[in-house]
Amino acid sequence: MRYRMLLPVAAAAVAVAAALAGLGPLTPAAESARAGELSLGPRFELTHAGTSHEMHLSGVAVAAARDGSALLAWAAEEGPVNQLYVARLGAGESKPVRVNPDGLSIEALHHPPRLVVAPAGEVYLSWSSAKPKPEGTLFASDLRLSRSLDGGQSFSGHLRVNEDRPISHSFDGLAVTGEGTVLVSWLDSREGGANAGTYMARVVEGGTKVQSVTKVGDDTCVCCRLDAAVGPGETVALIWRKVFPGTFATWC
Fold this sequence. Notes:
By secondary structure, the protein is mainly beta. The protein has helices at 15-21, 28-34; strands spanning 2-10, 40-49, 61-64, 70-78, 81-89, 94-98, 114-117, 123-130, 141-148, 156-160, 169-176, 182-188, 196-204, 209-220, 227-230, 236-239, 241-244, 248-251. The protein folds into 2 domains: 1-48, no CATH class; 56-251, Neuraminidase (6 Propeller). The longest helix has 7 residues, at 15-21.
């Protein structure tokens, strides 16, 4: 059985979209897209082979590489373990590359990997690896940061971002500043209770060293995703879902 991942690219006034389509300068169609219309460019397709209808895949992360190609990352169930893959579509298209080394598998498919390309071209991937669960514990994982210096052809490091605790570290956000500092955020239940906390790590030296870990928020929904983005200068934006008294929840 073949599972297809489709990436239709729009020739809109979005630099990433134009680059992925390989359009170069904006065409008249792209100029009209600036006025609110959308014109689709080439459509890329990637297949992931499976052995039966029981095959399961995670959600897919996508990022634009510096050469205009698209990088995709996803996890797939293969027998008793889940494996992590990255592939390139468009310019310099490549076959899927397995990221996780032997002995480290994806903890679960319901929280997909995160993928980002740094200004200097490094490719970073955050993902949760399986961890032994103490008796009575439902989930346990380590949050990993993998790095590629060759455009996604190979990955190394697999740095554990969190401290060594037998709890879940997942639903992460990933961003890179203009200076190359990697920011990894995640949900963490180290303090116990019904809700989690939101934490963020600064990873320096090319994604190889955790410089600091900061608690950003508390009473975070344990199953709601969070995200991170960087802006001009030292601006960093984080979003998570906070649970208030009376079980009222909103995004912060």
